[in-house]
Fold these 2 entries.
Entry 1:
Amino acid sequence: MSRPKVAFFDFTSCEGCQLTVVDTLQTHPELLDAVEIVQFREAMTEKGEDYQIAFVEGSCARKSDEERLARIRQQAQIVVALGACAHLGGINAIRNRLPLEAVVNCVYNENGDWSETHPYGRPRLSDRLINVEPTAKPIEAIITVDAILPGCPIDREEFARVTRQLLQGSQPRVPDYPLCVECKFKENVCLFQRGQVCLGPVIRAGCGAICPTYGESCEGCRGPISNPNMDSMQSVLAEAGLTADDLLSRFSMFGTYQMMKLE
Amino acid sequence: MSKVQLEVHYLTRVEGHGNIVIDAADGELKRCELQVVETPRFFEAMLRGRPYTEASHITSRICGICSVGHATTSLQATEAALGVIPSEQTQLLRKLNFLGEVLDSHILHIYMLVAPDFVGTGSVFPLAKSHPHVVLRALRMKKLAGDLCAVIGGRHTHPITMCVGGFTHLPGNRELEEIRARLEAMREDVTATVELFKSLTFPPFERVTEYVALRKPDEYTFIGGTITSTDKFELPVSDYREVTNEYLSPHSTAKHTRHHRDSYMVGALARFNVNYDRLHPRAQEAASALGLKPTCANPYLNSAAQVVEIVHCAEEAIALIDALLKRGIEPEAPKRVEVHAGEGVGACEAPRGTLYHHYRVGDDGRITGANCIIPTGQNLANIEADMRALVPTILNRPQDEISLGLEMLVRAYDPCISCATHMLDVRFE
């Protein structure tokens, strides 16, 4: 039997998840033997268009991204959202709150308070080149996604496990219970008791509660669980003297797209 | 062949994706552009309104390979704005983490992305069969660099523990001792790396330009210093805009920069040229073994300068761990921050060159303005200038040689990992 052909694609992202894949392959060389990688721009020049499994990193931010995603969907039997940008929209969606013109001006300085010294005047960058949509989206907003690998970046062991499950023909499962479960197993001191806003009670576990374990409250990069206990969340917040706004402010780092959808 | 048109598709990751366009007829170069068509991500806009505590966590997501560089530079800018001076221990740990990332990034670049060019393969994967000991060595070294970052940052990509005023979690003595032992054992691999790159012949192209890097009186600096150039300029980092002079180029979503010449170069070769005298003696030895002398004007040798920095960083990391173990890790909390309005600039030597973050913070501790200047952006104009000088000298060569020459040139600048491979989809007419 021939090995399944796998391709990696990147859209708007930092490409840290693909790097995590490269790192994972160092410790799980058996995965390299089980598949044939036909496209992985970060690591190889060759480019094959015949593949069964597509791992997609990054958010959809341009019209042309939508077309490219549709082509990937058409070719691949299985599409996996690789990391928070693809899964949630993530950090890229923070800008969705602002009008596109303001966002563009902020960086390309039509109003120009950061680059008044530049020598060639202020050539306007063509709209064709910038060409972004007002909303950075998760890929699920454009195409059907068969499996997710949450996180910013993805968790190495979860990548290895999900890939094995895909190769075995089973539907990969990632946890759908709160991060607090894993955090308790780690015997971490609850960060609410230190007066910090932590998203653990409403965010999907699976990272081993890595941020609270290293003293930083959960940033929500793995996205919300499907059935959060909001009553309990509110009492936790009240006990800590915090408000729902504090929680939402934290949540907006990775969850702006989801928040705006609910509004 | 009187007409050469190269269409380079998907250069990627100079903040992402780009194209190279070369158009020449009868030996005359009409057009020579490094088009950057990457989707802009608008980090400067994203930061506005966010609490200062989030800035380093958000900006580390600019780049998966130099997230420690962004986080460190971001913290410096925030701390400058809020008047926070981190403890000596914090500074030592940040340095150590930084060295880990430079090692990781350079090892990845020279072995996985540059080396395949010299054996004529499209990726490192075939080398695993043809040169297994080389690939295994690269993986071993890279794993150690990543593990070093994880011991300090909690995670290799996007550090968790680094925060304004210090760390939320500190490494244990035993973790540092274990990394130290592995770094010592790695010396053999480092020597083998120098030997390998000594045996390679780099293209002999030279073009003198201005080399810019941070410099400190007492060390080969990666975090902070004075902006220094081979054209004898010295400026405090707060005056960075006098050097960078960012401008928009109509064919690039990444902004370009220029100082007093049309372009300048940052990165390993620039650091080598500016700070040769600050290198560890073993790194200087490696440089002579590789035939590298300051001021070196061959951009292809940026890869060789990265090899020299691997030697330096490995030695420096051992020395830093010794210094940390001698002091003993103090269980200290991050410095307290008095929130007030302020403005500050941070500058570091990220693996690909000088990185600047500049923030304004409001009374409420929220970011009101931000500017980030990325090394690759600073190199774009210089890469184009190199291409303009190089292309006429190689126009009479076979087409695949021209492509490879250009591909290797852009790759030598290490313009953020992903662009380095699959740089050129070349079309000849």
Entry 2:
Amino acid sequence: MLYLVTSLLFFFLSVVVHIFWCRRQKKQDLHMTTFCLIALTVLGCYGMFLAFIQKAFQGQFGLTFWSCPLQLTSIVLYVLFIPIYLIFYFGTRVESPSKKMVLLIEQHGALSPEDFLKYFSDEHLVLTRLDDLERSYCVVLENKVYRLTDQGRTIARVLNLYQWITGRVIGG
Amino acid sequence: MNALDWLVVGNAFFSLSVFVLCHILIFRFTKHAAVLKWVKRFFMIGLAVNLIGYSVYPFGGFVSTSMTKPPYPCFIEENTFTFPLKLLGLLLSVFIYGVSAFLYVLCVLGPYESSIRLRLIRELSFAGLKGLTTKEILQRYNAMMIIQRRLDRLVASGELRREGSFYRSGKSQNVFLLIEMMAGFLARCIGEKGK
């Protein structure tokens, strides 16, 4: 249990460092890569801490509830918490249509599909995302025609493979 | 690392692989709207595998205090783990399984099933080198289709309920509100107003 608590404290430290880093930035961009770097650095520190504990207290820890050395479990938990934090962090900047629809129904009580169109237009849902894809070099716009770039084609191939494996209909 | 450590992590990821396997084998026969309902079922199957896998593991069991070695090959040689420790191991294994299944749904299954960007990439890949104009894209995929697909999914999962042509909240506390609450808290910490 002590290992787990320590691992959580180290993870909490990486979150705190990231929050302070974000607060100091002028541009309100997503700093996801920064968090990954911070989290991996802190994970390295945690690994060194584990090695130190192992060396300093070798054989002194019994297999009790508090002292059982669950190193692998604590590292796995730490690694799993990284994408979980990133999901919530991503949620602070980007809103999913499903989430917005549920929140709109919470506000208004009841809505029809046509009512939703007042809040979601083609421009809001589709065209802004096409712009995003263009900015991330997945799509190129030439003579008012959108085409996939090599990067976009690679993503399409991965999606085709996933569809072949799972047999799902096209998503969206 | 001790044997319990390996067991906790190994059992959790074995359960996850059962969850993923169920999804690969059975999802091809399910309807698009029923995705969330089936994900919950697969999760419960994985959870059952996790609980069974852990409890039948030959380290003396929860109730046994026997110090004898099991008759079959086993990497846990002695029954050195106390009941609270075994219980902690079980809870951790379930927790790791739950978190990793949650991540699989949100990072792999979710984007495939519901990402608008990925759908646009696929529509453009179907068009090939010819490409698509904005008008052609909107004929194939538009706001009304996006809204209707989401409404169908949310009704099937019980988040919303349909009354005639209107949709109402289906649960007093749904997962979206919880995520919104946590994301809002994080946004306040970071000092940003969520979009």
